[in-house]
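Incident review: delayed structure delivery

Summary: a single-chain prediction request sat in the queue longer than the usual turnaround. Root cause was a stuck worker, restarted by the on-call engineer. No data loss occurred. The affected request and its eventual output are reproduced below so the record is complete for anyone auditing the incident later.

Affected input:
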Amino acid sequence: MPGDVNPFGALMVTYFVAALISAIIFIFMVGPSNVLVELSKINWTSIILAIAIVGLEVGYVFVYRTGWAVSTASVVANIGLACVLLVVGFLLYWENVSIKQIIGIFVCMFGLVLINI
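Output delivered after worker restart:
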């Protein structure tokens, strides 16, 4: 993405094209007569997921524009996301968290420290 392009404009075009492709595949898979039935099954989670995806993507753009290496930024973002999702799953959805997962969070945090030294 060029450095002088507004990241939200670029993401808008990107997601517009992705939406068109998804719509074509969706209609092909469910059939034109079932489109409204399938769309009626969608709830608020799709909107929240869209907000999260835009946040992640624009975060990547900003991180790369500030000079982070592609490999480092991706690893840091994915580790951070995994740790946050583990906590969210536990607090909001009462998912079981094992000792291995807790140890994994600490190992990831230590890895983040090593990456950023």
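Verification: The helical segments are 7-30, 35-39, 45-65, 70-93, 99-115.
Action items: add queue-age alerting; document worker restart procedure.
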